[in-house]
From TrEMBL, chain A:
Domain FUZ/MON1/HPS1 second Longin: 393-509
Location of this chain's protein in the cell: Endosome, Multivesicular body membrane; Prevacuolar compartment membrane; Vacuole membrane
One GO term describing the cellular component: Mon1-Ccz1 complex
Assigned keywords, A-Z: Autophagy, Endosome, Membrane, Protein transport, Transport, Vacuole
InterPro entries: FUZ/MON1/HPS1_longin_1, FUZ/MON1/HPS1_longin_2, FUZ/MON1/HPS1_longin_3, Mon1
Domain FUZ/MON1/HPS1 third Longin per the UniProt entry, residue ranges: 541-640
FUZ/MON1/HPS1 first Longin domain ranges (all copies): 231-353
Secretion signal span: none
Topology term for the membrane: Peripheral membrane protein
Protein name, per record: Vacuolar fusion protein MON1
Automatic annotation (TrEMBL), chain B:
One Pfam family this sequence matches: Ras
Key words, A-Z: Nucleotide-binding
Coiled coil segments of this chain: none
SUPFAM superfamilies per UniProt: P-loop containing nucleoside triphosphate hydrolases
Organism per entry: Zopfia rhizophila CBS 207.26
Name of the protein in question: Ras-domain-containing protein
Classification of source organism: Eukaryota, Fungi, Dikarya, Ascomycota, Pezizomycotina
SMART domains, per database record: RAB, RAN, RAS, RHO
Positions of the UniProt region annotated as Disordered: 134-170
Length: 651, 248
């Protein structure tokens, strides 16, 4: 579809170069060659990126220093402007492509080339992934060559063809082989084409990287493990000191930190801002926040804006630990200050965030929160109990059940920043350090969205809903029913407020138990999210995300039964990221975006009130999908006060 | 609690505020978890801020209810420490026997406690991770010669001593320091549970009777302490029956 973005032309070249990296064949010779290449790649693509595509996506950028592109890319270079700035060249490609591909109709739904330039980054990555697939999947050399040579011309179709990257030739093959019994299975079971490469990589994504041996004998395999990761985050100081890396220890990342730092400071030196670049199938996005540089490196389907949001969250986590003024002070005294010292112990929080982004988090994607579905009257009882027991120094009070908000109490003039809540939820439910300790906790933290200059103090107590009799016990005995746990968070600006808030917690829990709210919460938690067919009987939808813009909250159906594994969820999230990128591309504002692939049909729809993303099997017609989407909207409208917290308890 | 618990427990009971201090990752939370839940977690994530737990300890003549502040060891939380050790009747200063720098840090904490905390505070110096030391009972004390060399070799995980003994702080060194400062001294393993209950029992025994007049203890003058008592009693009364004493 919008594959004609400026970065596309590099596909053939880079895919050839990089294919071995991710290919499962572990050919030493090839790997080694690849070893040498990345740096060149990075620099080369950096220059290419900023000299052409950077301009198209970011108007603020000044004219970047001219760097000569690699000769082999020159041809594509020349063709880029025409393909990305006018529709004319795209059309013929579509048409000519249709003769070789199955899904001409599919490409028809992608008429919005006007967006393509700003989406180029996302497109280019997908594109490259596609390139990877080609070289990987085509087993015999002949196929390989022919498909590759096609790549530049069919790329538009290729992208439109499949959101999750599958090559037509490949697909045909799999179709033929599976026409028997398995074909039907696939239709009914999976929305996504099989992609063993991605599956394999994703499976290992969360594994720890081996320790480098002292004699360096396993250096190569360690490097390969490191490079095989789909997503990296690097945080470094503007002086180039490493602060955080998602994967690998210092020894491993030093070189990369050095290269990244060199690239960033090169542009800073030229009074330019480097926002991102592409190297092979990998997208790099950089943000500079004061004395920190944060880099996201991804091979997943994510747009620059989405990656920036993730980097912002990591930056907020750092501020949450240190506060902005104190961090600035540290660097003011010495630019080469080692920030890892004051951040000691928070690596787990940063990594929990990073893992969340790698698994794919609807909450981060939509910058919104999910609430526990409760009847309006029930929530009202909880809210008023909260208000009734509110103690003097309370600033915010929250009840959170398995990562979903149950109730909020807040001062009239302050609302809660979703980013802040995300940090808190991450700390309590993802990182697990607080919960694992048992007992009650008193945690100083800065909520940067609320005020990035000072600390607040948070009282945290977990209740075990499974054993209501033990609720007031101070130490939860075991942590088996984790999903059923409810946390009570009471935030105050008073450093010494622990016992005051502890008293409030006791009152609150006692009252909630007395008026039956605890039981209601337990019921709601147990019930979980409804399935699509519970919401709209007979709905063809497999999943959806509905974000209420006004409430900055979202709701979604259960991942079961279609998306039970982390891999399936990640693929679903890839699709959502893709749709989201389309809706949020500037300057064009799409209202509705239909997208079809051989295995699924999806819809993204935005109005001033909501954003809706939904997906159904490919056999669903567009009309049916649209109708299902409408039904979802009706359902949400009906259930609005149950699935969202509107206003909350205000004092 | 003293009142409500009186029916079930004829023995007089009193609350003792106890604070754990020490460098990051020496095993403070693990010690508490072993003491409170008799549980151990490998690779526990660092504590953020501080955790508050309680556990009772039955002595022959009375019951001590520990109100434990398990603090985070990271440098950035150091400024909050006074809030936790103020009015504390007991402190557990923990170091890691495989890490000499952690003993240095422990000594700083001891000095700060002696300077700033309530006079009469009972301090126990605890060398944790005893399971990492070789089982040879002599190794700890006979390695006295290595005491000076140890800090230099700190970086290496496996020293020349062989037998996989990761101990870098000889028992003798720490014991001598503890005696000099009048501290209780123990080497423990939160992982195996070795000596953990003993530490708390020893502290309970060392708390002077005079400071245990009631549930209120000598502390509780600040807002922190006062509130605490009110709440703790309430909770303690309720859990009394379910929790039958601690390991000690």
């Amino acid at each position: 579809m919008e594959g004609t973005g400026n970065a596309d032309p590099q596909t053939p070249g880079t895919s050839l170069e990089n294919a071995p990296t991710s290919s499962t064949q572990k050919n030493d010779k090839v790997e080694q060659q690849d070893f040498i290449n990345p740096t060149i790649n990075i620099i080369q693509s950096a220059s290419r990126r900023t000299s052409t595509s950077g301009v198209s996506s970011i108007s603020r950028e000044e004219t970047p220093p001219p760097l000569p592109p690699r000769p082999k890319n020159l041809a594509f270079f020349d063709s880029r402007p025409s393909s990305s700035h006018s529709l004319a060249p795209t059309r013929p490609q579509l048409v000519s492509k249709a003769t070789t591909q199955l899904s001409y109709t599919d490409t028809q739904s992608y008429n919005d080339e006007s967006r393509e330039e700003s989406l180029s980054s996302g497109a280019s990555r997908r594109k490259n992934y596609f390139g990877l697939n080609v070289s990987r999947n085509a087993s015999d050399a002949e196929d390989n060559v022919s498909v590759r040579s096609f790549a530049p011309t069919i790329e538009v179709g290729g992208d439109a063809e499949s959101i999750l990257g599958e090559v037509i030739g490949d697909h045909e093959k799999s179709l033929l082989t599976s026409l028997g019994n398995r074909f039907e299975d696939k239709e009914s079971e999976s929305l996504f084409p099989p992609d063993p490469e991605f599956e394999e990589t994703f499976k290992q994504e969360f594994d720890e990287i081996e320790e480098m041996k002292a004699d360096g004998s396993n250096e190569e395999s360690v490097m390969l493990q490191w490079r095989a990761k789909l997503k990296h985050f690097l945080i470094l100081s503007s002086a180039g000191k490493p602060i955080y890396s998602r994967h690998g220890n210092d020894q491993l990342i030093t070189n990369y930190i050095g290269v990244v730092q060199a690239i960033i400071s090169f542009y800073q030196g030229a009074n330019d801002v480097l926002r991102g670049f592409t190297a092979g199938d990998v997208r790099f996005v950089v943000i500079s926040q004061g004395p920190l540089n944060l880099v996201a490196i991804t091979r997943l389907t994510e747009s620059d804006a989405q990656l920036r949001a993730q980097l912002d969250a990591l930056y907020m986590q750092i501020l949450s630990t240190l506060t902005l003024p104190s961090m600035e002070r540290m660097f003011a005294t010495r630019a080469s200050y080692d920030l890892r010292r004051p951040l000691q112990g928070t690596e787990t929080l940063l990594s929990a965030l990073a893992d969340g982004f790698t698994r794919g988090s609807p909450s981060t994607l939509l910058s919104a929160l999910e609430c526990l579905k409760l009847r309006k009257s029930h929530r009202h009882v909880i809210n008023s109990t909260f208000l009734k027991t509110r103690s003097e120094s309370l600033l915010y009070g929250l009840i959170v059940a398995s990562g979903k908000l149950v109730s909020v109490v807040r001062p009239k003039k302050h609302s809660l920043h979703p980013g802040d809540l995300h940090l808190i939820f991450n700390m309590l439910f993802e990182a697990g350090s607080v919960k694992a300790g048992g007992g009650e906790n008193w945690i100083p933290l800065c909520l940067p969205g609320f005020n990035n200059t000072g600390f607040l103090y948070m009282y945290v107590s977990f209740l075990n809903l499974e054993h209501p009799t033990e609720q007031v016990q101070e130490r939860p005995v075991s942590k088996e029913g984790e999903g059923d746990e409810v946390a009570i968070l009471l935030i105050s600006a008073n450093k010494e407020g622990f016992f005051e808030l502890r008293g409030m917690r006791d009152d609150l829990v006692e009252q909630l138990q007395k008026n039956g709210s605890i039981d209601l919460m337990r019921g709601a938690v147990r019930q979980g999210r409804p399935s699509c067919t519970d919401i709209v009987p007979g709905s063809p939808l497999r999943h959806f995300l509905y974000k209420s813009r006004g409430n900055v909250q979202f709701t979604m159906p259960s991942f079961d039964p279609y998306f039970q594994t982390a891999l399936d969820r990640r693929r679903l999230m890839n699709l959502y990221h893709h749709l989201h990128a389309h809706l949020h591309t500037k300057p064009t504002h799409l209202k509705i975006h239909h997208s079809t692939s051989t295995t699924n049909i999806s819809l993204a729809w935005t109005t001033p009130l909501f954003e809706l993303y939904c997906v159904a099997p490919a056999t669903t017609s567009r009309a049916a999908l649209a109708q299902a989407a409408n039904k979802v909207i009706q359902w949400v409208r009906k259930e609005e006060e149950r699935v969202f917290i509107i206003g909350g308890a205000v004092f | 609690m003293a009142d409500s618990g009186a029916q079930a427990q004829p023995k007089p009971s009193s609350s003792v505020k106890l604070v754990l201090l020490g460098e990051a990752a020496v095993g403070k939370s693990s010690l508490v978890m072993r003491f409170v839940n008799n549980d151990f977690q490998e690779n526990k994530e660092p504590t953020i801020g501080a955790a508050f737990l309680t556990q009772k300890c039955n002595l022959p003549t009375r019951t001590i209810k520990f109100e434990i502040w398990d603090t985070a060891g990271q440098e950035r939380f150091a400024s909050l420490a006074p809030m936790y050790y103020r009015n504390a009747q007991a402190a557990l200063v923990v170091y890691d026997i495989t890490k000499p720098s952690s003993l240095t840090k422990a000594q700083h904490w001891v000095a700060e406690l002696q300077r700033q905390a309530s006079p009469g505070i009972v301090i126990a110096l605890v060398g944790n991770k005893l399971d990492l030391a070789s089982s040879n009972p002599n190794s700890g004390s006979s390695d006295g010669d290595d005491a000076d060399a140890a800090p230099a070799a700190e970086g290496e995980e496996e020293g020349e001593e062989g037998e996989g003994d990761a101990r870098r702080v000889p028992t003798k060194t720490a014991k001598a320091y503890a005696d000099e400062e009048g501290l209780l001294f123990f080497e423990t393993s939160a992982k195996t549970g070795l000596n953990v209950a003993e530490v708390f029992t020893a502290i309970a025994n060392a708390i002077p009777e005079t400071s245990l007049k009631g549930p209120r203890g000598v502390g509780g003058q600040t807002s922190l302490g006062r509130q605490e008592d009110a709440r703790v009693n309430l909770v303690g009364g309720r859990t009394e029956g379910a929790k039958e004493g601690c390991a000690c």
